[in-house]
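Schema walk-through. Below, the input block comes first and the output block second. Nothing else is stored per chain. Lengths vary across the set, and this one has 557 residues.
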Amino acid sequence: MPHDISFDTAIETDDLETAIERAERALRGHQRSDGHWVFELEADATIPAEYVLLEHYLDRIDNELQAKIGVYLRRIQGEHGGWPLYHGGAFNISASVKAYFALKALGDDPAAPHMARARKAILAAGGAERTNVFTRIQLALFGEVPWRAVPVMPVEIMGLPKWFPFHLLKISYWSRTVVVPLLVLMALKPQARNPRGIRVQELFATPPELVTDWIRGPYRSGWGRFFKTVDAVMQKAEPRFSKDRRQKHIEEAVRWVGERLNGEDGLGAIYPAMANSVMMYDVLGYPPEHPQAAIAWQSVRNLVTVKDEEAYCQPCFSPIWDTGLAAHAMAEAQGPGAGLGAEEVERAAAWLVTKQITEVRGDWAEIKPDVPPGGWAFQFNNDHYPDVDDTAVVGMLLHRNGDPAHADAVEKARHWIIGMQSRNGGWGAFDADNTHGYLNHIPFADHGALLDPPTADVTARCVSFLAQLGNAEDAPVIARGIAYLRSDQLPEGCWFGRWGTNYIYGTWSVLCALNAAGVSHDDAMVRRAVAWLIEKQRPEGGWGEDCASYEGAPPGD
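--- output ---
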């Protein structure tokens, strides 16, 4: 349930109209010349730290940039000595090991107070041997742990049939794009160039060569113990796999990545996949100037955000989402008639129309082959992976704006959204029916987020979009969506929102959808949700929640 956050209420308040006008001016000032908005997308310490280590892996070290990333990493170190997964959060051992490793790589003295505090916190939490799978893979790439420290993920996965219990189409888009180049790395087991010879053995409570329980949960069900046994068998069997067949599947993985490389926007347009593609081309011997290797590296560099004193690496860009939400706000502020902000909304809508994906049939089409494309991505360009949530938000904006020239774009979005509905009535973010929950229990999925099942927040946006359009023939689709939302409501009356923070966000998202769909305010589902929100209102009149409420509730189990 929500954790409260505190607010400083000792601020001067304006009247409502003045506040709205000031907000409009601020938004207008951030709009780009072509009509879009894009704001910085900051994650935790993990990605900036990984970027530092990537430069050391490749021996492409930019000392000036790394120094600025060091300033950033030191600034966000927590009072507990380590690094959290969100601002003000609890110590996270995996983020902390990566941040410590990165700081040591860029020259911080292990005896420095901030490094000593971090090391003490890491050892108190069990040492680097207790980090998650992705951190242990990073450590294996630098030779800090043996490859037996990570679960077996053979590149032969590329050749598995669709009916097999594990198949790439059964996991989420972000997992897919991260995993495929990683399969090549795990097959070839390269070692980082690491020109400065940086080691972090001091972070292990037990010397890595003596650790025997690398794979030890979390076991959320009997599936976890079953898959651990499977992994133990695979650890012994993999070295005996046919080298010829392995090479064939490596080539298949490279083709898969090449088809989705996505220019300077990068594989999947997300940092971990892009970084893995860079290392994949490197281990295969592609020279840096090779077109695919060069574009993969440039896509990563594009995410680096440099300021006067510090720098960090964004996980991705968010222009479609930012533009959709900002333009909605401008449209809402202008009211029923043309007013302040109308021109900005028109420019945003015109830019968004140019970004609709109408030709490429991405991975989603493997599950929904009869559905025509018509979605929008989250990033500038990511044609293989349009986002259902973005599509619903942009579709609502274009319909609301009422320009007849955009009617075709709205209709294509409508057909794609309807086609992407899952069998249970809900919508996932990028795929339909991505609900193979047992896969969240394989050792590789210790982060619990391997899948992209339907969620209340995305479903709410889709219901809102279709209800706003008001096509009579869509009534059964909307009804199935509402039925899913009804079944997904928690006993307390709220909804879990996967893509925001979290129960408050999920609940207001659903209530907006139910209102748009004409569900009675006296409906028991609505009344329970409203009562829950009222109960959670803070004394100053607002609502607040921090990211701790996201923990312990991974969807798709």
